[in-house]
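Deliverable D2.4 — example input (structure tokens):
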């Protein structure tokens, strides 16, 4: 009998059609439980998720609605969204056309998101610190003005990519922690034409910092010769690769401190053949990324309910049912110190 039940649960998870992914969760006295999760079908947002389509099970027993008083607080009121963009300053050495494309791409990206996101932009090269290009803002005009400082900003020809991402996480978390809203959603975007060359921060330490940060991570790689496989662990979705409007790859940089080499005018380098994965312009890449982030925002669901538990560690399973489609997500929490007085409309900070 137990085997049949287990097989049934496995079939439920495999055949439900909805994919739920827990992003943040918290349990707080006197009995509040809040869970932020995504609901999607084949990678796309779904419509129609309401409190009536959700079932809550604590330790396998369904909670009556009158007891849980479950709510789906609107994220437009409960959430604040932040995006930090890190730009490889070394890309500016690829020429004026590249600079213009990057500026236009970041400004267009900002216009996609700034109705709901606060955005800031930082540059990095081989130096240990970030260069602030755009302070946190909701104003596309300030983004456009700040991106003008991209030109001539390279001071160290190396690439402190790992260190820049660690600092980017820190800046993003600082912005999120200042919010007065209970839900804070952060996106870290990396635009690079290189991998880490400086060696200031190991990949192991970087991946640990990214995992602990509880943010969304995205990477846009610029240039045909960029080893995308080295960047894939840094992004939670597929790396978006874009082409340069020049034939010379940015990765062909001289060692730190060495003089750059040049190709004799009489022997120009042959143009590199374009590949199917390298057809996007940087503007198109950022437009695609903006659409991904907007889709992610549309997948998010915030559930708040009151638990009748009063002590001990327990598991909650949340199921979403939309017609014949369903999916579930689980969370374990401590109910020690829980008691009366819970208000589900008072969402604890996640």
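Example output (designed residues):
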């Amino acid at each position: 009998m137990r085997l049949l039940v287990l097989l049934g649960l496995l079939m439920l998870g495999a055949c439900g059609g909805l994919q739920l992914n827990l992003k943040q969760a918290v349990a707080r006295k006197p009995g509040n439980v809040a869970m932020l999760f995504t609901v999607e079908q084949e990678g796309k947002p779904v419509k129609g998720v309401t409190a009536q389509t959700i079932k809550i099970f604590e330790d396998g027993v369904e909670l009556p609605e009158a007891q849980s008083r479950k709510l789906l607080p609107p994220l437009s009121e409960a959430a604040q969204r932040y995006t930090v963009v890190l730009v490889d300053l070394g890309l500016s050495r690829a020429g004026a056309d590249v600079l213009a494309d990057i500026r236009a791409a970041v400004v267009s990206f900002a216009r996609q998101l700034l109705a709901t996101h606060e955005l800031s932009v930082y540059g990095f090269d081989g130096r240990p610190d970030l260069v602030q290009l755009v302070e946190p803002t909701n104003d596309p005009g300030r983004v456009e003005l700040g991106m003008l400082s991209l030109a001539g900003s390279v001071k160290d020809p190396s690439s402190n990519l790992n260190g820049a991402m660690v600092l980017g996480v820190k800046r993003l978390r600082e912005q999120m922690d200042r919010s007065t809203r209970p839900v804070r959603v952060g996106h870290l975007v990396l635009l690079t034409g290189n991998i880490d060359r400086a060696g200031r921060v190991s990949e192991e330490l970087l991946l640990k910092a990214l995992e602990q940060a509880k943010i969304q991570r995205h990477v846009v790689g610029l240039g045909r010769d960029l080893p995308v496989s080295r960047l894939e662990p840094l992004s939670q979705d597929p790396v978006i690769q874009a082409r340069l409007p020049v034939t010379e790859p940015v990765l062909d940089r001289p060692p730190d401190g060495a003089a750059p080499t040049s190709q004799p005018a009489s022997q120009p380098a042959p143009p590199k053949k374009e590949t199917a994965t390298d057809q996007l312009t940087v503007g198109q890449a950022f437009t695609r990324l903006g659409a991904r982030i907007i889709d992610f925002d549309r997948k998010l669901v915030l559930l708040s309910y009151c638990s009748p538990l009063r002590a001990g560690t327990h598991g909650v399973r949340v199921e979403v049912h939309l017609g014949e489609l369903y999916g579930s997500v689980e969370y374990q929490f401590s109910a020690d110190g829980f008691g009366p007085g819970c208000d589900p409309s008072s969402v604890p900070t996640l």
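The chain has two domains: 17-77+299-334, 79-297.
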